[in-house]
């Protein structure tokens, strides 16, 4: 796991062996099974998670019981309820496992400590946060301005492997379409 984490970080910033050993020592591991919750709505959130293996979904359930999927996270992706984590409030989303998962866990305190002590890690998380914000903005604009076929094509272009792993009902929810509409969509 530590080799994959080092490669992930070093896509953005190089680390010495001593720096990486220090960084890796701040993480713990967590294993979850399919359908198990990582975060539940209205619970406290203390950690950020890097996906080593598996697939998760982040979603909000509205007052009518409808699920609105915000994000999927598979290997090499980060996931948490960042509003709750950063503001130290209760979760407004839930995150659960679509597949069995192995995660590296970084507590809010350890993340702050790493960012305070290592400029390279602060830079890494700044760039990851910026990329996440851009991706979220693009997703919202696509939901608002594009038809279902365009939304499907965009997801297929960005992450064809993800599409192969998702149950159709979750994919339809993510794209904001019915399961019947999804069955009419085709690959680009």
Give a quick rundown of the structure.
The chain has nine helices and eight strands. It is an alpha+beta fold and 188 residues long. The chain is globular and about 55 Å long.
Question: Describe it for me?
Answer:
This protein has helices at residues 2-10, 17-24, 82-87, 108-117, 119-145, 148-158, 160-165, 168-175, 179-184; strands at 27-32, 37-39, 47-53, 55-61, 67-74, 78-79, 94-97, 101-107. It has 188 residues and is of the alpha+beta class. The chain has a single domain (2-145), classed as Sandwich (Jelly Rolls). A hairpin with a 5-residue loop joins β4 (55-61) and β5 (67-74). α4 crosses α5. It is globular. The mean pLDDT is 94.
Shape label: globular
* Structural class assignment: alpha+beta
Question: Which sheet architecture does the biggest sheet show?
Answer: 4 strands, antiparallel
Strand order of the largest sheet: 1-8-3-6
Look at the structure and give the mean pLDDT: 94
Number of DSSP strand runs: 8
Strand content: 15-25%
The first-level CATH class name: Mainly Beta
Unreliable residue runs: none
In percent, how helical is the residue content? 40-55%
CATH topology: Jelly Rolls
Radius of gyration computed on alpha carbons: 17 Å
């Amino acid at each position: 796991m530590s080799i994959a984490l080092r490669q992930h970080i070093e896509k953005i910033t190089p680390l010495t062996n001593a720096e990486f050993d220090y960084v890796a020592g701040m993480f713990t591991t967590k294993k979850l099974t399919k359908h198990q919750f990582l975060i539940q709505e209205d619970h406290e959130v203390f950690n950020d998670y890097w996906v080593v293996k598996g697939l998760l979904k982040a979603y909000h359930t509205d007052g009518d019981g409808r699920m609105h999927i915000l994000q999927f996270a598979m290997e090499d992706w980060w996931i948490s309820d960042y509003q709750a984590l950063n503001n130290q409030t209760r979760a407004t989303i839930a995150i659960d496992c679509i597949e069995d998962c192995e995660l590296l866990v970084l507590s809010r305190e350890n993340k702050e400590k790493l960012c305070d002590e290592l400029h390279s890690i602060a830079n890494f998380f700044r760039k990851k946060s910026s990329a996440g914000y851009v991706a979220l903005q693009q997703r919202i604009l696509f939901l608002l301005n594009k038809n279902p076929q365009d939304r499907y094509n965009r997801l297929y272009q960005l992450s064809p492997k993800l599409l192969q792993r998702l149950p159709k009902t979750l994919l339809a929810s993510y794209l904001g379409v019915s399961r019947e509409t999804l069955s009419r969509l085709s690959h680009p």
